[in-house]
Design a protein that fits this description.
The chain is mostly helical. It contains 13 helices and two strands.
Length: 291
């Protein structure tokens, strides 16, 4: 009996210690401090955590209900901060913050690396033909556009033409740059075959860069500031930050550098577009500038 009591006491102490390691829960706020590089890095890892892709429907309902109980002050005794943070992570990974509808799995932030990595491999394949270059650039920009649309700011309806325009601009610019650079490299007689192959490996980088900016124009890049920015910034900051997932796969050091500056800034409403400034009575708003 004494051994059993000792074991139970040790387990309870361990659970209490694990719970105390988690910061006090704040609904709708990041778990990790955004004022430090490490905090921003941990927050980003939470966003792209692919384990949330395997959350069951029952677990999702439980997470949503737990957060609703917390919001209405009806939380059952014994719920830890760790459980609340985990529930919020699950909800934010699966449900759109504005519509509360499930985001199609390949277009979730947590699915960007698992579903995007095969595209990255395709972009970097050697000795590509014109057809394969066009195909992989088109597939990459199509995936980016779907991710942007699925995670858009949905507080106000946006015309479909805006998204189509951004998508077409991204595809055309990416394909044009990739094909054009490949043709130039192939016609450069001064390069040895080995050098030419090496240069061709880097063609996708300048191709996806400008196209990424074009794709973001179709997303909610400047729709976050408003009367209630916290809820709406969540969807927007994910869309902006995920532009750099591909460089993260290619070059981790480059992506880690993105977390050095603080990405949440304030701006006076007088400097905003009129339609955004009219959405709030505040003199200043906080926005996410992306990575």
């Amino acid at each position: 009996m004494a051994d059993t009591a000792t074991t139970a006491s040790a387990a309870a102490a361990s659970a209490a210690s694990a719970s105390s390691d988690a910061p006090p829960f704040q609904l709708g706020k990041p778990r990790f401090q955004q004022t430090s590089f490490y905090g921003r890095f941990r927050h980003f890892l939470d966003i792209i955590d692919p384990r949330t892709l395997f959350v069951t429907e029952r677990r999702l309902r439980e997470a949503v209900q737990l957060l609703e109980d917390y919001k209405h002050g009806t939380l059952r005794p014994g719920v830890t901060n760790e459980q609340l943070w985990s529930a919020q992570k699950i909800k934010q990974a699966i449900l759109h913050p504005d519509t509360n509808e499930k985001i199609f799995m390949p277009f979730r932030m947590s699915g960007y690396i698992p579903f995007g990595t095969p595209i990255v491999v395709g972009l970097l394949l050697p000795n590509q033909t014109l057809a394969s270059t066009v195909f992989w650039q088109w597939l990459n920009q199509s995936h980016n556009a779907c991710v942007n649309y699925a995670n858009r700011n949905a507080t106000k309806p946006s015309p479909a033409s805006k998204f189509i325009q951004g998508y077409l601009g991204a595809v055309i610019s990416a394909v044009s740059i990739a094909v054009g650079l490949n043709v130039l490299v192939q016609k450069a007689n001064k390069f040895t075959p080995a050098t030419r192959l090496l240069i061709q490996r880097f063609v996708p980088f300048p191709a996806v860069g400008p196209a990424g900016d074009g794709a973001d124009a179709s997303g909610p890049a400047h729709a976050h500031p408003g009367a209630t920015p916290d809820r709406h910034v969540h969807a927007g900051e994910n869309v902006i930050s995920m532009r750099h997932v591909h460089p993260f796969v290619h070059c981790p050091a480059q992506h880690l550098a993105q977390f050095l500056p603080h990405n949440r800034c304030s701006i006076e409403t007088s400097q905003l577009e009129p339609e955004i400034a009219q959405a709030t009575s505040s003199r200043t708003v906080v926005y996410n500038k992306g990575l």
